[in-house]
Write a structure and sequence with these properties.
Blueprint (H helix, E strand, L loop, with lengths): L1 H22 L6 H32 L22 E6 L5 E5 L9 E8 L8 E7 L5 H4 L5 E2 L5
Parallel strand pairs: 4-5
Antiparallel strand pairs: 1-2, 2-3, 3-4
């Protein structure tokens, strides 16, 4: 009887231990966070190249491109490399970069939204960087990109 009780207690302790391990939240390490920030930086770098293409199209056509072909960029999936899944130019020149799980969010999105400037330079474009995917992007980008659940 004593042996059975001991076995039952051992099984109970093992079950409780397994349950607590499963319930423990997964925290990302500093190294994981750095890899995620590196993926976001790669996405922003690629978005910067697309931004230049949109600005060139604006200067030449006096309107914003509505797709990759108009901006003289490759098909969206052709940009898949490392943490980047695709790069899309959407209506009104919006640049959408979709990232892989390496960024911390599988299918995470960064958007660059152009607005023709009201400055004296009629060819200037003001850009806003937003994301519905990365709540800490403001810190990761030194304030150049903002988190917004609703995107423009």
């Amino acid at each position: 009887m004593r042996v059975q009780q001991g076995v039952r207690n051992t099984v109970l302790v093992a079950l409780l231990a397994a349950t607590s391990v499963q319930a423990a939240p997964v925290k990302s390490s500093a190294a994981d966070k750095q890899l995620q920030n590196d993926a976001i930086s790669a996405g922003l770098s690629l978005a910067g190249d697309a931004r230049t293409a949109v600005e060139t199209y604006w200067r030449e056509q006096k309107r914003l491109p509505s797709n990759n072909a108009e901006a003289h960029l490759g098909v969206p999936a052709s940009y898949a490399s490392g943490p980047i899944r695709r790069l899309d130019i959407e209506g009104a020149g919006r640049v959408r970069v979709t990232l892989s799980a390496a960024s911390g969010v599988d299918g995470g999105v960064i958007l660059l939204v152009p607005t023709p400037s009201s400055s004296a330079d009629s060819y200037a474009i003001d850009w806003a960087c937003t994301t519905p995917s990365y709540s800490d992007i403001h810190d990761a980008t030194n304030g150049t990109c903002d988190y917004s659940v609703t995107t423009r």
